[in-house]
Amino acid sequence: MDARRIIDGLIMYLGLVVLLTLHEFGHAWVAWRCGDDTARLQGRVSLNPLAHIDPIGTVVLPLLILFLPASFGRFLVGWAKPVPVNPGKLRNPRVDDILVTLAGPGMNLLLGVVLMGLARIGYLVGSAGLVEIGLEMARLSLLLCFFNLLPIPPLDGSQVVRSLSGMSYQTYYKIARYGFFILILALQIPLVPTMLAAVTTTSQAVIGTWLGMPMGL
Question: Given a cut of 80, is residue 217 above it in pLDDT?
Answer without folding.
Answer: no
